[in-house]
Write a structure and sequence with these properties.
Alpha-Beta Plaits; four-stranded antiparallel sheet; single chain; 4 strands; alpha+beta
């Protein structure tokens, strides 16, 4: 008996969906736009996480030591810095290695290399390359190093290059935060629009079916039986919209892969491949969008049903 009622409710929901074809199509298109934006937010977050991790691995601050600094003092400083909670890693670069790296970077500049060779001693001092756990923590590390450099004539530190990198670090952090806020705002706005459109679509469907609803009530149909088809119709909007959105993401991520390969990766040298991310996380992305789509449409349908059927 219960199975028969459920079957009838589902069948009535499908009938309502196809009977109001153009209205249903309009609702689906708006929901697709919403889910597409939310899905794009997922891809954007993945790309930002990959980019941030790559850039974090490239950004560091260097502490340059005076030429007369003893190696044991520098290594002692290295141990102190490594124990800071904000520090991820510390690399010691000896004066000889710094000179070798300098020559390698400028191997095409014969004049500069010749000038270096003519010097009596190595002009470069030892250094520490410090990586923080988070981009925002470089300022705290630099402040700690400044504290170690406050006594002139005693400190072995010659220079800390944090302020040269500070603008890049701040710009990167600001760009990522701004992108996250913008994407979230767009998703919320479109979600509200989708709820309103689905709400009004169900309302129109209820109005178009008002005579049938009246007949069902006269013959003693329960509120659940009367409202069920409209809830099913709303759920159908969410399911179909999710399927369409996932299909659209296939060519979209291929296009994004081409863009990131030719532009972003050439600038940042990051390994962004959103098409592979889409394929490997297909099930997870589908489940998220399906949950959001069904939730938006079923909630708006339920609100419309309760308001306009007065149940």
């Amino acid at each position: 008996m219960i199975f028969t009622k459920i079957k009838r409710v589902v069948k009535a929901g499908f009938v309502n969906f196809w009977r109001n074809g153009w209205v249903s199509l309009a609702a689906i298109l708006v929901v697709v736009m919403t889910l597409f934006t939310i899905g794009s937010l997922i891809f954007s977050k993945a790309a930002l996480d990959i980019t941030l991790e790559e850039v974090k691995n490239k950004i560091d601050i260097s502490v340059y030591f005076k030429a007369n600094a003893e190696e044991q003092d520098i290594l002692a400083m290295k141990d102190i810095v490594a124990k800071l909670s904000e520090v991820k890693s510390v690399e010691y670069v000896s004066a000889d290695k710094a000179l070798a790296d300098f020559k390698e970077r400028h191997k095409d500049n014969a004049t500069l290399l010749q000038s270096i060779e003519e010097l009596d001693k190595n002009p470069l001092g030892a250094a520490l390359n410090i990586k923080a756990k988070e981009i925002s923590q470089y300022g705290l590390v630099a402040k700690f190093l400044d504290g170690k450099n406050e006594t002139p004539g005693v400190s072995i530190i010659d220079k800390v290059n944090y302020f040269q990198n500070k603008k890049v670090i701040d710009n990167l952090s600001g760009m990522i935060d701004s992108t996250k806020r913008t994407d979230l705002t767009k998703s919320l706005i479109l979600a509200i629009i989708a709820i309103l459109v689905t709400f009004n679509t169900i309302r129109l469907t209820i109005y178009a079916s008002r005579e049938e609803i009246e007949v069902m009530r006269l013959v003693g149909a329960s509120n659940k039986f009367v409202s069920g088809p409209f809830i099913i119709e709303g759920i159908m909007y969410g399911v179909i919209s999710t399927i369409i959105t996932m299909i659209l993401f296939f060519p979209y991520t291929i296009w994004l892969e081409h863009i990131t390969t030719n532009h972003v990766m050439s600038i940042l040298a990051t390994n962004i491949n959103l098409f592979h991310y889409y394929i490997f996380n297909f099930g997870q992305i589908f489940a998220i969008l399906l949950g959001v789509g069904v939730f938006i449409c079923s909630v708006s349908s339920l609100i419309a049903v309760r308001r306009y059927l007065k149940i």
